[in-house]
Amino acid sequence: MKVLLSAALILLVQGAFLNAQEPARELKKIIVAVPSISVSNTPAVIAKELGYYRREGFNAEIVLMKAGVSVQALVAGSVDYTGTPGATMAAAVQGVGLRVLMAYSDRPLYDLIVRPEITSYGDLRGKIFGVGSFSGLSFEIPQVMLSKNHINPKRDVTMILVGPTETRLTALRTNAIQATILEPPYNFIAIKEGFRKLDYSGTYSQTLQGALTVSANRIKTQPEEVGRFVKATLRGLLAYRDQKETALSVMKRFLRIEDPGLVAQIYDYHRATLTADGTISEELMRTIIDSLRESGKVGRAVPSEEVFNFSFVRAAMNELTRK
Length: 323
Fold this sequence. Notes:
With about 325 residues, this protein is an alpha/beta fold. The chain has 14 helices and 10 strands. The protein has helices at about 1-25, 40-50, 50-55, 65-75, 85-95, 135-150, 165-175, 185-190, 215-220, 225-240, 245-255, 260-270, 280-295, 310-320, and strands at about 30-35, 60-65, 80, 100-105, 110-115, 130, 160, 180, 195-200, 210-215. Strand 6, helix 6 (about 135-150) and strand 7 (about 160) form a beta-alpha-beta unit. Helix 2 crosses helix 10 (about 225-240), helix 2 crosses helix 11 and helix 11 (about 245-255) crosses helix 12. The radius of gyration is 22 Å and the shape is globular.
């Protein structure tokens, strides 16, 4: 009897252990590619850290991947979602089956950062300007800023491909470039190191900075999963906006910044640009598409639904606000 009781107890303990592990075994692994460790994708990081993805049945892994590579990986199915709206929208306008599901910010986060000896736009003539890519926001925004200040981006400066934000800051430090646009935290780090903030990009235009993107095929074949993932990410956005102390704690770890004052500065800078409900206006969608059509030499009309699909985030917002 003792042997039987012992055996039964072992089975019960094993059963309890297996039951406890069951949710973890059922979690679906999801890979989210982001171009750099920056504040732009903090809502997704918050969603992961606060367990919102796990609550919806996902084991989300956030990985670093260059914007152009992540677009290819998204099409191929090597990654499930990305946080690279600029490259994604540019590809979608070209006819690639990609969609923006959710918008984190509706204003650019970039500051124009230059070497200390540069004090005006005129000083940029003949200088080297580093960009993150030859498409998307890190390429389009500098051209607007330069043009609006009477600097021809094709003639007056030399634009070279440098790569992600952190790499551009390194190039600025070594004088390999004399100007670039940097987003938090790198803009604040650069200013603290003595580089000059020449201008703020948000003065010139609205745009989409920070977003959740996916392939059109995934929307078609796995709409239920997409809906749950968007809802978890939206919860992350709302928590990020409304729970400052929690956000600062997560940001400190994700951005790898020990200075609490700097983290708070970055949070306030970013929070002012957040969307109210994860969407942008139809007018801004059209502005973005038309700009990308022009830069990409796309002659055909591109309807907004070929680039954006906010139906999932609208449904998620309706559900969350009813609770």
